[in-house]
């Protein structure tokens, strides 16, 4: 088997037609590239935002200049912020009806299946195109329960302004790291969700982020507050067409899970392979609250992505389930951080990573159990599968336990695709490609079955696309 | 077309790191025939079986292999399976995340079986019954956590679903209790009904061998076929073991 691959080292380019289409730039408004105080002031001025926000932006910009680029992960020297356009405004206002969205943008989201999903299986949808939301809508029946789902900038001008001010970049302060500071300075767009106490949103809300403009950055901010005893499932999707210049995504997600509340946050990320995905996500969970992350990372050239959960109240729980697939030219550094900061808290981390055609996937986990977190439990399990000899997979698990009556488990496995399994499947008439695809799908299956159905289908399609042409 | 199903000529096989395993084997299985391959441990029986499906863990160093008079020497595993060669694995691998049901569907589709839609489901239910397998197995991941006996039954299930022409049964009966062996016998009998098919059974189980109609026995020792005959050979080995043959093979240039 390995002989076959060795004889045919060239891997044909992957068919990504589903995501890789561009729409040109019609009458868009673009600021100059690079990062200066003037640009930050221009962004702020366009948004007509409260004074504290401009202050926040300028403070973040200062911090950005003070902080250094991380020196421990994949190389991001190919990213030059002077070449990145931080603000690209599509030629439209935010609409609540797809008919009011300009044709080319509407067509983009239609090809991504968003309006169709909204009709069948979502309680609300937000769609962002480059720097601004172009569509936001919530089902009436959900809105009637008092659930707020809107653009965050829109919310900043309404009755929830104070709540946003109290929470905005409090979990992820601009001092967290250089790209959090960048986000604080130039953020634009994103969604705000508030679910009132003891309210259950039966079907998911979804925000989709599409970056169309070459050489641009996307810096959306997602803020979700799930109040006491409330339930929500939120889905985030991202994609972009491929360009020859670097694009940057430095979004920020802040999630507040109240007492006894339950939040599931699902992501399918399929950025194009010229994207630097330096995204920061963090959740804080109060007593008896539950935070579930489900994450599929398929795209981007380079990713740094480690969603963090702070278990801040007794019996708070976190589950982190993810899959990462690194193909040719991709270096995906992903993982999670969990902070057990109260007694009886528990966390389950279960991740899978795949690498192929020279791709690198690295899994990092950092679980900290503080002195306060008596009787806490944590289980970390990560499995990696390398599909050929050129690819790489690393696992870097960290555990910092400062309490002695805790239950800690960890298991990791790194392996290559099993030739005996491929032979077995081929002996039943499956081609080598079909056999490997089936094995990879099977490997991914425990994760994909956690995803909403249409996303599970999408994930299987992505795996199939990734596997196509990988064997000649 | 002749009545030959499988023919190997001067068939020599080595491991990928060039250790010779099989030496110039010649063997022909005709349609409607059941052959038995016997030999001591390490003789190369399983290697022979899986090399007939072009297992990339081995390489052919000499000779040709024909299936229904067509030279299939250069065909890869999946193409040979599509022609109608089936191997029941001695130790089937676990494949997590794939249900037995979806695997069966894929296998049936890929081997060009006429079983589609309702026919597939009907045949599946009947076969499950014959093999005394519960419906629940269909939803379980392929071979994951299956006992040795369950795995063997699942191999037999595939054989009966796939409508292959030549079945190679590699120790299909090993590790089974008497009841399970009898169930396997039922399966083999069903396969034998169709006289256009052929069987190559690798086994030492007298219970099975005594109950089947056997046309030819081949004794493989140290990679050489050292004796061939009818089912009387089985009784001879049952009585005296392979020692007599091993001495013979000792004279061969290995």
TrEMBL record, chain A:
Question: InterPro entries, per this entry?
Answer: Fe-S_cluster_assembly_SufBD (IPR055346), SUF_FeS_clus_asmbl_SufB (IPR010231), SUF_FeS_clus_asmbl_SufBD_core (IPR000825), SUF_FeS_clus_asmbl_SufBD_sf (IPR037284)
Q: Which residues form the SUF system FeS cluster assembly SufBD core domain?
A: 209-443
Quick one: a GO biological-process term for this protein? iron-sulfur cluster assembly
Q: Which Pfam families match?
A: SUFBD_core
Q: Which domain of life is it from?
A: Bacteria
Supply the NCBIfam families for this chain.
sufB
Query: Family per UniProt?
Result: Belongs to the iron-sulfur cluster assembly SufBD family.
Q: What is this protein called?
A: Fe-S cluster assembly protein SufB
Q: Please tell me the species this chain comes from.
A: Pectinatus cerevisiiphilus
UniProtKB/TrEMBL annotation, chain B:
Molecular function terms from GO: ATP binding; ATP hydrolysis activity
InterPro entries the UniProt entry points to: ABC_transporter-like_ATP-bd (IPR003439), ABC_transporter-like_CS (IPR017871), FeS-cluster_ATPase_SufC (IPR010230), P-loop_NTPase (IPR027417)
Q: Where is the ABC transporter domain?
A: 6-247
Record's keyword annotation contains ATP-binding: yes
Query: Which keywords has UniProt assigned to this entry?
Result: ATP-binding, Nucleotide-binding
Write down the SUPFAM superfamilies for this protein, in alphabetical order.
P-loop containing nucleoside triphosphate hydrolases
The family database entries (Pfam families) matched by this protein are listed as: ABC_tran
What the entry lists under PROSITE patterns is as follows: ABC_TRANSPORTER_1 (PS00211), ABC_TRANSPORTER_2 (PS50893)
Q: Which family does it belong to?
A: Belongs to the ABC transporter superfamily. Ycf16 family.
Q: What is this protein called?
A: Fe-S cluster assembly ATP-binding protein
């Amino acid at each position: 088997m390995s002989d076959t691959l060795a004889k045919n080292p060239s891997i044909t380019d992957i068919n990504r037609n589903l995501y890789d289409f561009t729409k040109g730039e019609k009458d868009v408004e673009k600021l100059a590239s690079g990062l200066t105080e003037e640009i930050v002031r221009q962004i702020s001025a366009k948004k007509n935002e409260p004074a504290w926000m401009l202050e926040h932006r300028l403070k973040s910009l200062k911090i950005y200049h003070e902080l250094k680029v991380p020196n421990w992960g994949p190389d991001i020297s190919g990213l030059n912020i002077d070449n990145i356009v931080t603000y690209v405004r599509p030629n439209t206002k935010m609409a609540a009806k797809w008919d009011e969205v300009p044709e080319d943008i509407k067509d983009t989201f239609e090809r991504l299946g968003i309006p169709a999903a909204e009709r069948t299986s979502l309680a609300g949808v937000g769609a962002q195109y480059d720097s601004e939301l172009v569509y936001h809508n919530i089902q009436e029946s959900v809105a009637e329960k008092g659930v707020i789902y809107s653009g965050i900038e829109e919310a900043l001008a309404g009755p929830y302004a104070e709540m946003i001010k109290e929470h905005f970049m409090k979990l992820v302060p601009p001092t967290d790291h250089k790209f959090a500071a960048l986000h604080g300075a130039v953020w634009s767009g994103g969604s705000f969700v508030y679910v009132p106490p003891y309210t259950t949103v039966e079907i998911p809300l979804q925000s989709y982020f599409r970056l169309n403009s070459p050489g641009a950055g996307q810096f959306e901010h997602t803020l979700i507050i799930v109040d006491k005893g409330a339930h929500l499932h939120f889905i985030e999707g991202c994609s972009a067409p491929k360009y020859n210049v670097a694009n940057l995504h430095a979004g920020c997600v802040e999630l507040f899970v109240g007492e006894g509340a339950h939040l599931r946050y699902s992501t399918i990320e399929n950025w194009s392979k010229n994207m630097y995905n330096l995204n920061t996500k963090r959740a804080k969970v109060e007593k008896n609250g539950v935070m579930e992350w489900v994450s599929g990372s398929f795209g981007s050239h380079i990713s740094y992505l480690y969603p963090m959960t702070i278990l801040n109240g007794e019996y708070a729980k976190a589950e982190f389930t993810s899959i990462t697939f690194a193909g040719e030219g991709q270096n995906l550094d992903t993982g999670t951080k969990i902070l057990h900061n109260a007694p009886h808290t528990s966390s389950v981390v279960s991740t899978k990573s795949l690498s192929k055609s020279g791709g690198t996937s690295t899994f990092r986990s950092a679980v900290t159990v503080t002195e306060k977190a008596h009787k806490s439990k944590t289980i970390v399990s990560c499995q990696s599968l390398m599909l050929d000899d050129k690819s790489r997979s690393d696992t870097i698990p960290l555990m910092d336990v400062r309490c002695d009556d805790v239950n800690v488990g960890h298991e990791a496995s790194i392996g290559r695709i099993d030739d005996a399994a491929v032979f077995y499947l081929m002996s039943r008439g499956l081609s080598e490609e079909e056999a490997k695809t089936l094995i990879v799908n099977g490997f991914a299956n425990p994760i994909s079955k956690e995803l909403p159905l249409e996303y599970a289908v999408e994930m299987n399609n992505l795996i199939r696309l990734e596997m196509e042409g990988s064997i000649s | 077309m002749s009545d030959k199903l499988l023919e190997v000529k001067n068939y020599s096989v080595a491991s990928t790191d060039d250790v010779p395993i099989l030496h110039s084997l010649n063997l022909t299985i005709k349609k409607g025939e059941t052959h038995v391959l016997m030999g001591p441990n390490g003789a190369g029986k399983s290697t022979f079986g899986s090399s007939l499906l072009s297992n990339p863990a081995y390489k052919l160093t000499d000779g040709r292999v024909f299936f229904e008079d067509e030279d299939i020497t250069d065909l890869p595993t999946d193409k040979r399976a599509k022609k109608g060669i089936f191997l029941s694995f001695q130790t089937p691998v676990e494949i997590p995340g794939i249900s037995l049901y979806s695997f069966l569907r894929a296998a049936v589709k890929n081997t060009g079986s006429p079983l589609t839609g309702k026919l597939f489901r009907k045949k599946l239910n009947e076969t499950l019954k014959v093999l005394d397998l519960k419906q629940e197995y269909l939803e379980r991941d392929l071979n994951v956590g299956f006992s040795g006996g369950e795995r063997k039954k699942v191999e037999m299930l595939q054989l009966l679903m796939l409508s292959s022409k030549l079945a190679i049964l590699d120790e299909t009966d090993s590790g089974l209790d008497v009841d399970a062996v009898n169930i396997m016998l039922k399966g083999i009998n069903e396969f034998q009904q169709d006289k256009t098919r052929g069987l190559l059974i690798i086994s030492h189980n007298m219970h099975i061998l005594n109950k089947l109609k056997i046309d030819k026995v081949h004794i493989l020792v140290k990679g050489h076929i050292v004796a061939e005959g009818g089912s009387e050979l089985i009784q001879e080995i049952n009585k005296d073991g392979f020692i007599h043959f091993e001495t013979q093979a000792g004279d061969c240039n290995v």
